[in-house]
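Dear support,

We are seeing what looks like truncated structure output for some complexes. This example has two components. We would appreciate it if you could run it in full and send us the complete token output so we can diff it against ours.
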Amino acid sequence: MSDYSPTILQGQQTNDDEILAKTPLDAKALGGDSSVVIMELLQRFKVRDVMKRQVLSIPRKATLREAQRILRENHISGLPVSEDGRLYGIISVNDIINGLDHGWMDDTVDMHMASSLVVLEAGMPISFALRYFNNYTYGRFPVLDSNRQLVGIISQRDVMRALLYELSVEIRKLERKTADKVAQPAPPSETHFFRREWAVVHNDLTGAGRAANEIKQLLREKKVDRSVARRIAVAAYELEINICIHSHGGVLVMVISDNAVTITAKDRGPGIPDIEWACRDGTSTANDWIRSLGFGAGMGLSNSKRVADFFEIESEVGKFTKVTCAFNLKKLEAPAGGTAS
Amino acid sequence: MTAAEIAEKVGGTVAVAADGAQATSVYVGDLLSDVMGHAGEDCVLVTIQNHLNTIAVCTLVGCTVLVICHSRPIPPDMAEGAAREGVAVVVTPLSQYAVALALKELPPSTH
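Here is the complete output from our reference environment:
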């Protein structure tokens, strides 16, 4: 037996966020009802964040017997065949079993490896990795950087471990928040009001409309006039869609007071350079994919403005956009400081 | 007009039935923001937009029957959403204009 030692590739830090960072999330594949925290994690985390960077590999001219030894000693079921960072194939336990069956153990690995490979890119969101695990039966995928160099390997276990860790961090944060709220009684308020907030995830069009729908239900429960409730729901939906397709994510907040309902949409970037232009009917920066779904017609802001009793928009390029729509529940003057429409 | 009556008039089939769904007017549009801005309650929405967001729009503006043109398939999440929200869905091989002609006895939906 040869004393061949496997090559250990040290994965490089890649800088290819842009590869697929803007790829739409297929929420269906992930379960359309996933919580926002999970959806955001799946989008925020990239394959490179959870993959194993130390990848055992073997060159093309090593034998199946050498591959078998590496697999056995390292308790792994698949081994990339690579040279100088270039990936040529994968040799798996199944190939070794076939080799034993047919007496091929002294053949070179390139004769029996799988060379038609499904790979992931380091910059892909984790949601992609999960979809790949769902669509293919492979237990692991090699990971390439934008220069097609092998930089890591990712298994379902890696993804689960990372997600569980991050979820526990998020849950701890939520627990702390709840504890704070319990510890501090709410300040006395002069008016009765109700406040609720919804997170809106960038490009999650499947989830878009959830907040607006809940808003409509809540308004119905609170016996808000049907036509006012409809106007509020229309504005909420338009603003929710805007956050979803134009920003990096944000929140939609509804506050119901005695006299008015206020919907506020605040997002994280990229901001609006020319607010007057953006508020005109038919002006939009949406891409073709969004337009093909019937959105991005440039009517969102103008629709919201038209249905609201008070409309205000603030934005800082590169930072945020905040849109406030208020609706009178009783016949009152519009609040000062904005444009009544 | 019920979803079954609409299906018959447009030579289509009821893909999702909804109890008691009645339409009293028609709106034709593929731009969902336009639909949001102009369609009225209890209307038939005639469109090619065969995805879940169309159901969200129907729910918000109060469209009771959705007619999907050119025999576009109804994805499972859309069918589930329609059933959940009580929106009837009819699929027809006709174009939007042909559907509008077939439903000419109903008035245009306005808001």
